[in-house]
Structure formats: structure tokens, C-alpha cells
Design a protein that fits this description.
single chain, alpha+beta, 2 domains, five-stranded mixed β-sheet, two-stranded antiparallel ribbon, 11 helices, rod-shaped
Length: about 350
Amino acid sequence: MHPILAGRGRLALYLSLWALVAVLLAGLLAARMGLSWPQTALVVLPIAAAYAFVCLSAWYVARSLPIVSSGAAKILATGIVASLLSSGGWLVMSRPWIGMLVRRGWLPEAARAGGHESLIFGFGVLLYLLSLAVSYLLITVGETQEAERRALQVQVLAREAELRSLRAQIDPHFLFNCLHSISALTTVNPQAARRMCLLLGDFLRETLALGGEARITVARELKLAERFLAVERIRFGDRLDVEIAADPQAESGHVPPLLLQPIVENAVTHGIAHMLDGGTIRIVATRSPSRLSIVVENPCDPERPRSKGAGVGLANVRARLRALHGADALLATGEQDGRWRVEVSFPAPPAVEREKETA
């Protein structure tokens, strides 16, 4: 369908512009034919309205001759021929209309003279060529918007693929560590190894229930972290304590599933595991008007073996945040007073926007 005919608003705007064209043509005819403004309005308004729809055909001419694949000479020649034919048809259309107005006495007999025909014909050629140029402009704008839409769609699909890939990395890394722990327990405490297997099964069942969800609430994410730490408590016993605190506004926020799992896993592996007396892992979720922040703290031994690089877990978290929020996301790590601190912070949309996203 013609883009101008696709909506009433566009058609109304198009006809309004043609009303201005009719006023200009009426002024020229009034000077050429010696008619009053009411008389020229009777002549011009109907034929201008008819020619407005004739000029819509320029869009189809432009569609049949794309700028990229058609040569300039071919486009120019076709445009000139189409404008001559359209303007000639307009002129033929205007003759019976003017004759009818003369017969009814609304125009003087002198209006039958052909002095105005060259003006109408030349004006029609210019209007059609202008319509053709505007049609090419509309087609170019439409193709540009379509290309941008496709590029954005490709970008979104690539981001989703990246997020799925990053999330897929969590499971084998996490399972490797858990199975290693279960293997170690089987020789020293078979009952604890069995309990750990059961808790691990419950945790995996919960993660499988997430399915293909792109985001879950912070409250649900904190429950998953608590379940994971319950698995680790089998191995560390009283050496591992957990404190979780979140304000209600933070709990209603949304995060990617299992975002905290690599962080709390590092807190156990690189923190509690190196402390003879163990310690407390503290998770705090807060929210400001525009950002959501989650902090994970754990005790750390200053003389512990230092790992090289940021590690798979934190690298995964950083990549997922970057894919979702770009430069607006923050992952900060640091050690102070014998405690290791990881802070995750990213923009939190208002509640109304979140409802729209989940709708």
C-alpha cells in the first residue's frame, strides 16, 4: 500500500499541502485568465484534488526503478515521460470541467480560450516531478528505517545468544566444583556426601525450573544463593554462616538468573575455605531511585594463595552485566579489613517500566 494512504493522518497532511498548491495555481490562473478569486477557486480546487491522487502514482514509478539498480538516465527519462503523460491527462481532465462552468454561466466565455492550458500543463509536469522526488525520498527513508530495524534485531539476537552462552558456562563450572567436593566427602563422611547430593539435586531442580527466563526477581535470586550455600554448609559445617538482607524495593527488582551464584561460590572457595575458623558470608541488596545494588562480603586470609586473573566466575558475571546494561553496569571488587567485597550495581527501571517489560 502507498505510505500516504496507509493512515488518515498522512492523507490529511498530503491533501493540506495540495491545498497550498491549489492556492498558488489559483493565483497564477487569476492573473492569466483575468478571473476573480472565487471563479479561479471553482476551476482549481476540483482539478487540483484529482491531480493530487494522480501524483500518488509517482511512488509506484519510483518503486519500479530503484536508485541503486537503475541508472540516472533511465530514471530521468522515465520520470519525464511519466510527468508528460500525467500532466497531459490532467489537462484533458480540466477541459470538460471548465466547459461545464462556462455553460452554467459561472465563468465568462473567454475562459474557454487556451491561454491557461500551457500554464496548467507546465505546472502539472513540475508537480509530478516533485512528487517523484518525494517518493524516492520516502522510499529511501523507509529502507533506512528497515535496515536499522534489522540491525537492531540482529544485535538483540546476538545479545540473547551471548547471554545463553554465558549462562551455559555456569552449570559445568559449578557442577565440577560440587562433584569434587562430594568426591572428597565420600571417604571421610559418606552421610554428609549423601546429604550434599540431595541438596544439590534440590538446587539443580530449582535452577531447571527457571527455564528460559531472561530475568527473575532479586528475592528469587537470593533464595537460589541461599540454597547453594546450604549445599556448601554440608562440607564446611559450622565454619560457614550466612546473612542475607534485602529491602523490599530491592527484592522486587530483576536480575539475570544465577547472577550471584559465581560470586557466592568464589566467596566459599577463595574465602571460607582458607579460614580455619570459617566466617560469615553476608549478602545485602539495596535499591536507590535509579539503581539496584547487591553486595557480597566474605572473610579472607591475607596470606591465601592468589589466583591469577579475575577467574571464570567474575568474568562471567561481568560479561552478562555488560551484555544487558553496557557501560551502565558496575562490578567492583576489593579487600578491606580482612574481608573481600564484591558489589554488583546496574540501572533499575521504575516499577511501571518493569511491568511493561514483563507484560
